[in-house]
Design goal:
Elements lengths: L2 H18 L6 H12 L16 E5 L7 E2 L12 E4 L24 E5 L7 E2 L12 E4 L9 E2 L2 H7 L2 E4 L1 E4 L3 E9 L5 E5 L4 E6 L7 E2 L4 E6 L1 H18 L7 H7 L4 H10 L6 E4 L4 E6 L6 E2 L4 E6 L3 E9 L11 E6 L6 E13 L5 E9 L10 E7 L5 E6 L4 E2 L4 E8 L2 E6 L1 E6 L2 E6 L6 E5 L1 H17 L7
Antiparallel strand pairs: 1-2, 1-3, 4-5, 4-6, 7-27, 8-30, 9-24, 10-19, 10-23, 11-18, 12-14, 12-17, 13-16, 14-15, 16-18, 19-22, 20-21, 20-23, 21-22, 24-29, 25-26, 26-27, 28-29
Helix pairs in contact: 4-5
Protein name: Efflux RND transporter periplasmic adaptor subunit
Pfam families: Beta-barrel_RND_2, BSH_CusB, CzcB_C
GO cellular component, one term: outer membrane-bounded periplasmic space
C-alpha cells in the first residue's frame, strides 16, 4: 500500500478511536505513536532537516518570537525547541533548491547587539523596549579595525548620503555690528586767535549745512584792528619805496580770512567788524557763540564736519580677526533704513583688542551718498575675506566636531565606512577647508554621519569587552 494511503488510514483510525473515548486515557501513548509513525522528533514538519552543531538557543515550539538561552517549557508543559548552529537565523541569500553552492556555509552569528547603539548585547535574538530587533554580529566582522559595515537596507533607511572632496574657493563672510562715525580728518573747529567781541551771529544752528565761505559771525577785535592799521601804514611805505615788513604776516597769524586782508589792501581802510566764515563744506556739529559775547583768544565759535565721506567702525571678534585684511570688501546696511546698502573697503584695523568684549575695531570708509549716513547710526556689516584661493573643502555637515576632536566619515563603498580625524581650515559659504586627513576625490558622508559615528564608538567599546559569554 502507498504511504499516502497508510497515512490516511492511520488518521481515520485515530479519529475514530478518539470519538469512542478509548484514547482518552492514553494521550501520551497516542502522541508517541504519532511521532513514531511520521518520524518526527521535536519538529513540526517531517521534511525539516536535522540541525547540526552546538545548541545556540531555545525557541518556542510554536515558532513564536520567544527565545531562551536555557532549556525551558511553555505554560502548558511543552518543551522549547533546541535551535542548533546550522539552524540559526541568517540574512544571507541562499541558493535555490537544486542550485550548486559555490561559497562556504554562511557566517556564524556571534551575538546580537542593541539596534540603537547602546552597549547591550544578547546571545540570542531579542527585541528592545521599542520593539526593534537586535542586530546580528557575524563571525569575522571585526577583522578590519575602524571600518563600519552597514547593509544596503540600513543605509537607505538612515538616509546616508556622501559627496567627493573637491578643491573649491571659500569666500568667508563675517557678519558683525558697526556704528557710523565721522571722518576725523574732515572735522574743523572755527576759532579766533585774538580777544574779540561777537557783534552778530549768522542764523545758523546745530545740524545746518554750510558751504565754504559762508558767513558764520561778525566780530570786533581791537588787536586785529591794530594789526590792520599797521598793514595799511606798511602798504603806504612800500609805495614810497620802503621794503615791506611783517604786517601782512601778522594778520595771517591772527587767523584773519584772506578775503578780509585783500579788502584792506584794496581799500586802504580797516573795517570796524570782520566777517568770520566757514573754512569748509559740512554740517554744524556745535555752535558755541551768541550775540554780544566776548571771546578770548583760542575760543571755539563753531564745530563743523564734512560728511561726504564717512567711517563705519565694525567690532570684529578676536577669533575672526585673522580673516580680515586691508582692502577687503565690505557691505554696510543701516538698521534705520531697511533695504539700503553701501559698499566700501576696510582701510584700517585698529591695533587693540577691547578687554571687555574681546573685539577689535575695523574701519571702513564709505562715500555718503545723499547724506543718508549720520554719526552714531547702527549698522550691520558684512566683511569678505581677502583670499579666495581653491582649497580642499567639504560641506559643514560632513564634520563631526566634539570640541576636542574633528572627524569625517569616509565612504569606502559596498556599505563600508571609516571615521577619519581631520584638521580644519577656513569656513565660509556652508563649507569648511580640510588641511589634513583626506585627499581630493575621497568620498565623505554628509548626511546621517552621526549615526555611523555612534556605530563606530559602539564597535570600539564592544571590542574592549571581548567577554566570551557575550558570544554564543
Amino acid at each position: 500500500m502507498k504511504p499516502v494511503a497508510l497515512t490516511g488510514l492511520a488518521l481515520a483510525a485515530i479519529l475514530a478511536a478518539g470519538s469512542a473515548g478509548y484514547w482518552a486515557g492514553h494521550r501520551g501513548i497516542a502522541s508517541a505513536g504519532l511521532r513514531s509513525w511520521f518520524g518526527i522528533e521535536g519538529s513540526l514538519a517531517a521534511n525539516e532537516p536535522v540541525g547540526t552543531g552546538p545548541v545556540v538557543y531555545y525557541q518556542d515550539p510554536d515558532r513564536r518570537p520567544v527565545y531562551s538561552a536555557q532549556p525551558r517549557q511553555t505554560e502548558d508543559g511543552r518543551p522549547f525547541t533546541a535551535v542548533r548552529a546550522s539552524q540559526d537565523i541568517s540574512f544571507e541569500e541562499k541558493p535555490a533548491t537544486g542550485e550548486r553552492t559555490v561559497q562556504a556555509d554562511p557566517k556564524r552569528v556571534l551575538y546580537y547587539r542593541n539596534p540603537m547603539g547602546l552597549p547591550d548585547t544578547s546571545p540570542v535574538p531579542k527585541k528592545d523596549s521599542m520593539g526593534m530587533d537586535y542586530l546580528p554580529v557575524y563571525e569575522g566582522e571585526g577583522n578590519e579595525d575602524g571600518v563600519i559595515k552597514l547593509s544596503p537596507g540600513r543605509i537607505q533607511r538612515s538616509g546616508v548620503r556622501s559627496e567627493p572632496v573637491r578643491r573649491q574657493s571659500i569666500v568667508q563672510t563675517i557678519h558683525v555690528p558697526g556704528v557710523v562715525q565721522l571722518d576725523e580728518r574732515r572735522v574743523s573747529v572755527v576759532t579766533i586767535r585774538a580777544d574779540a567781541f561777537v557783534q552778530e551771529v549768522a542764523p545758523i544752528t546745530t545740524g545746518d549745512r554750510v558751504t565754504k565761505g559762508t558767513r558764520l559771525a561778525r566780530i570786533y577785535s581791537p588787536e586785529i584792528s591794530t594789526a590792520g592799521a599797521q598793514f595799511i601804514t606798511e602798504l603806504n611805505a612800500v609805495a614810497r619805496g620802503v621794503p615791506e615788513g611783517g604786517a601782512r604776516q601778522r594778520l595771517e597769524n591772527l587767523g584773519v580770512p584772506s578775503e578780509v586782508i585783500a579788502e584792506i589792501e584794496r581799500n586802504r581802510k580797516v573795517p570796524l567788524t570782520i566777517n568770520w566764515s566757514a573754512p569748509r563744506d559740512g554740517i554744524v556739529l556745535e555752535r558755541s557763540v551768541s550775540d554780544g559775547m566776548k571771546m578770548t583768544a583760542g575760543g571755539s565759535l563753531f564745530r563743523l564736519a564734512d560728511i561726504s565721506t564717512i567711517w563705519v567702525l565694525a567690532d570684529v571678534p578676536e577669533r575672526q580677526l585673522a580673516a580680515v585684511g586691508i582692502g577687503a570688501p565690505a557691505t554696510v546696511r543701516l538698521r534705520g533704513r531697511p533695504g539700503s546698502s553701501f559698499e566700501g573697503r576696510v582701510s584700517v584695523i585698529y591695533p587693540e583688542i577691547a578687554e571687555a568684549t574681546r573685539t577689535a575695531k575695523v574701519r571702513i570708509e564709505i562715500g555718503n551718498r545723499d547724506g543718508m549716513l549720520l554719526p552714531n547710526m547702527y549698522a550691520d556689516v558684512e566683511i569678505g575675506s581677502g583670499d579666495a584661493g581653491p582649497l580642499l573643502a567639504v560641506p559643514d555637515s560632513a564634520v563631526i566636531d566634539s570640541g576636542t576632536r574633528r572627524v569625517v566619515i569616509l565612504d569606502l563603498g559596498e556599505g563600508r565606512f571609516e571615521p577619519r580625524e581631520v584638521k580644519l581650515g577656513r569656513r565660509g559659504d556652508g563649507r569648511v577647508a580640510i588641511t589634513e586627513g583626506v585627499a581630493e576625490g575621497d568620498r565623505v558622508v554628509v548626511s546621517a554621519n552621526f549615526l555611523i559615528d555612534a556605530e563606530s564608538n559602539l564597535k570600539a567599546a564592544l571590542s574592549g569587552f571581548a567577554q566570551p559569554e557575550a558570544k554564543p
